[in-house]
Structures are given as C-alpha cells and as structure tokens.
Design brief:
The chain is of the alpha/beta class. The protein contains seven helices and 13 strands. Helix 1 runs parallel beside helix 5, helix 4 crosses helix 5 and helix 4 packs across helix 7.
Length: 253
C-alpha cells in the first residue's frame, strides 16, 4: 500500500500541502492541466524553489489577478467541483473537504452548513489549494494518508468577521478528536484549510509508521516562526499494519 505521511512539525496549510507534494514528485504541469477542468478563472499558478534553514523546499503560489472573487456557499462550491471533468475520486474527496469545512464554520456561527458563505476559503485560491492537494495525492497514487499530531500557535488573526484568537474557532472545531499540542510560537500554524484537508484525508494521526520511504518533499510556508516553516511529506510503501495509532474518527479505530 502506498501512503503519504505528513509530518506537520511546523503546522499545515493548503499551499504547504501543495508545495510538499510537488517537491515529492507530483508533476506540476499535469496538475495545472487538470485544474483547468475547474470552471474558475482569475488565477495563475507557479512555484519557487527555496531553502529554509538550509533545507530545499517548494513554495507553491496562487497569483490572483485583479478579478474580485465572490464569497461562495457550499452548494456553489460543490457545483463548481462536481460539474468539472476531474476524476470522480478527486471530486468526491474535494467536496468532502469543503463539506467538513462548512460544517465547522456552521458550528462556530450557529447556522446550517448550506448557509455558510466562505470568505477567506471560498475564493479561487482556496479551491485550488483543496482540489490541487487531492489531485496531487491522486497523481502520486496515494492510497492512504497518515499525519503527525498538530502544533498550535498563539496570538490573533484578522478575518472577515474581525480579529479572532488563535487557533481560529473554525480550526479548533475541525481539530476535535485530533491529537494536538501547544507551542510557544506567535502566529497561525494550522489554518482552517490545512485543518480541513488533513482531518478529512488522513486515516490516522500517529508517529511515522513502518514504511519503505520512496520520496520526501518539503513545502514552504509563508510565515517565519522560530522553527523551520516547512511541511514534510514522506511517500512510501506501508510495511506493517501493527502498532498503535491515534484516530480522529471511529471508522479508523
């Protein structure tokens, strides 16, 4: 079984996921071609190779043009994804990530998921982050995703609703049942998009399982905390089903 293990020692975000997976071998040109199947416009994709604390990494960038992006509801986003010619598995998993995100936002704001209008994550760049990450896993032939426990920073973050404490309320809602730990770092280490991706796609949260490592990729973050702002992904073959893992859903326990 081919797996991806996300080592989230500095947190996780959508662009860090894409950077790590491209660094691990997901073909960038194929990714761009597949994403053109989405009926969205007003963006340009590129990436930069850089070094953070001496470690080579990929910084994935979604360049938004002058076109103003609307706040979108969950049904609108589901229609955008569902109406595309992307592989069915990619569409289903991408919609599941957005559904989980909508449910978290709904719980925070006291509305139904259908009434949630995404501001920060409804724009094209978040659609690219989510669908692109699922696409990369598909292109790499990943069957199962594992992840490390998640570090949580402190401070405040501006958003469409004002200034919120960190971790953001929607992020905390998404991380229910997931092993987390606090670190003495100012800033947002786990974004709502990153939390939605990893809690939807990961079957379990644990230390690195016994795998035959084939590839390693580092995705660069946009902030500069005290620790290297990198997301590390291991791609490899699972060697054993033994051991204890921490699960966020009974389906995996």
């Amino acid at each position: 079984m081919r797996i991806a293990y996300f080592d989230c020692f500095a947190g996780i975000s959508g662009d860090m996921c894409l950077g790590a997976l491209v660094a691990a071998g997901a073909d960038f040109e194929t990714l761009k071609k597949e994403l053109l199947k989405l009926p969205v416009t007003g963006y340009r994709l590129f990436y930069e190779k850089k070094k953070l604390d001496g470690v080579a990494a990929v910084d994935f960038l979604v360049d938004m043009g002058p076109e103003k992006q609307p706040a979108r509801s969950l049904p609108e986003i589901e229609r955008i994804i569902g109406g595309s010619a992307l592989p069915e598995e990619v569409k289903a998993k991408s919609k599941a990530v957005f559904k989980r995100l909508a449910e978290a936002e709904a719980a925070v704001h006291g509305v139904t998921p259908e009434k949630v209008h995404f501001h920060e994550v409804g724009a094209v760049d978040a659609i690219i982050d989510i669908v692109g990450t699922v696409l990369c896993l598909h292109l790499l032939g990943i069957e199962t995703v594992y992840a490390s426990p998640l570090p949580l920073g402190r401070g405040f973050v501006p958003c469409a609703h004002g200034v919120l404490p960190l971790p953001a309320p929607a992020t905390l809602e998404l991380l229910k049942g997931v092993p987390v730990y606090g670190v003495n770092t100012e800033g947002e280490l786990v974004t709502p998009t990153g939390a939605a991706l990893i809690t939807t796609l990961a079957g379990a949260f644990s230390s690195l399982p016994e795998i035959l490592v084939e590839r390693i990729g580092h995705g660069a973050g946009k902030n500069s905390p005290e620790r290297p702002n990198l997301l590390r992904v291991f791609i490899g073959r699972l060697q054993t089903s033994q051991g204890t893992v921490l699960c966020h859903t009974p389906d995996y326990c």
